[in-house]
Automatic annotation (TrEMBL):
It is found in: Cell outer membrane. The lineage of its organism: Bacteria, Pseudomonadati, Pseudomonadota, Betaproteobacteria, Burkholderiales. Keywords: Cell outer membrane, Ion transport, Membrane, Porin, Signal, Transmembrane, Transmembrane beta strand, Transport. The keyword Transport applies. Residues 1-20 form the signal peptide. It comes from Paraburkholderia kirstenboschensis. It is a multi-pass membrane protein. Homotrimer. The keyword Signal applies. Residues 8-340 form the Porin domain. CDD domains: gram_neg_porins. Its main location: membrane. This is Porin.
Length: 377
């Protein structure tokens, strides 16, 4: 009996040592609050809403040590709505991210699956809309540049280089998976970032050919694509600087869309021959105390479109202010206000202001205020 106990103890030690070389982590975030909007098409509204700041997720991520500084990695991430328990992306279990790959200290990371593109990875940390846990209300109009990760790239192969003295590159290719249509609904993306001390600089490019969205292409019809286009190109550059408790960010993005048609999740129900956006954002964060922080952003978006009904040059001014208080390392409460003014395209589908995550206004002005709570696990 004594020998059996010793044998079990020895086996337990070896099992623990083997298990220590790999790990699986369950994680998630819940964000919900009360939202007031002065104009959502038919009037004002007071609602309970989820994900006004951060996307609600739960997921699994893991790493296995393969030796020689090489790891097998994976991530499976689900998006959901706490108000009704439904998945964010219909017909999917892990609609936000799902990938597997290899990570080497000296060789970089290679992953395959449903993933972020370089615009999200490189420019997202500079924008208020995607900084840290994110701020969906602060997205550029219609998230036209995908900085707020409204859509992901399916069937994608992504390589991220090692960090070399602050310099890091990224390349992604998303296959169409269409027989006889290699270039139909494919996507590719490139990005470069430099981080050194208080300085962070980045540039990125994304192109997708997705005029006819499907569930099998690089861009899925389950995603929130406001302007499905025969070709979408996004390019941008920006930087941020940290000094003491404050940080300042500047970001420019340029989006070009050809031959757009309304999709299943489109807010705008008008087709365009060409549609262009230039987004100019300045943002600031300031930590008053370790628990209390302030943030704000101003974005000017300059648009241009041509359609069967004519052409115009719509414009949007948007101001976002936010205060956040941490109750613990995992839980915080917040209050935020956003104001948007749209003009220059009266009589078109762009007549009404549109703050991300809400319904379009019936006039050129829209105001939203929200208070909420977030918790992470």
């Amino acid at each position: 009996m004594k020998n059996d106990i010793i044998g079990v103890a020895v086996l337990s030690v070896f099992a623990t040592a083997a298990h220590a070389q790999s790990s699986v982590t369950l994680y998630g975030l819940i964000d919900t609050g009360i939202v007031y909007t002065n104009n959502q098409g038919s009037g004002s509204a007071v609602q309970m809403q989820s994900s006004m700041l951060s996307n609600e997720v739960w997921g699994l991520k893991g790493s296995e040590d393969l030796g020689a500084n090489l790891h097998a990695i994976f991530r499976l991430e689900n998006g959901f709505n706490i108000q009704n328990g439904r998945n964010t992306y219909s017909g999917t279990m892990f609609g936000r991210q799902a990938y597997v790959g290899l990570q080497g200290d000296s060789y970089g990371t290679l992953t395959l699956g449903r993933q972020y593109d370089a615009v999200v990875d490189m420019l997202g940390p500079i924008a208020l809309a995607n900084n840290g846990d994110g701020n969906n209300l602060a997205a550029h109009p219609f998230d036209n540049d995908n900085v707020d990760d409204s859509f992901y790239i399916n069937n994608s192969v992504k390589y991220v280089s090692p960090n070399f003295k602050g310099l890091q590159g990224e390349a992604l290719y998303g296959f169409s998976d269409a027989a006889g249509g290699f270039s139909n609904n494919r996507a590719y993306s490139l990005g470069l970032s430099y981080s050194n001390g208080p300085i962070n600089l980045a540039a990125a490019y994304l192109q997708s050919n997705s005029g006819s969205l499907s569930s099998t292409g690089a861009v899925s019809n389950n995603d929130f694509v406001n302007f499905p286009a025969s070709r979408q190109r996004v390019m941008g550059a920006g930087g941020s600087y940290n000094f003491g408790p404050a940080s300042v960010g500047l970001l420019w993005t340029h989006t070009l869309l050809d031959n757009t048609q309304p999709g299943a999740n489109s807010v705008i129900s008008q087709a365009f021959n060409t549609l262009h956006f230039n987004n100019y954002e300045a943002n600031v964060h300031y930590a008053l105390t370790p628990s209390l922080s302030l943030a704000g952003a101003y974005t000017f978006t300059q648009g241009a479109f041509s359609s069967a009904n004519g052409s115009a040059n719509p414009k949007w001014h948007q101001v976002t202010v936010m205060v956040d208080y941490s109750l613990s390392k995992r839980t915080d409460v917040y209050a935020e206000g956003v104001y948007q003014h749209a003009y220059g395209a009266e009589g078109s589908a762009f007549t009404g202001a549109y703050i991300n995550g809400l319904s379009q206004a019936s006039t050129g002005n829209q105001v939203v205020g929200t208070v909420g709570i977030r918790t992470r696990f």
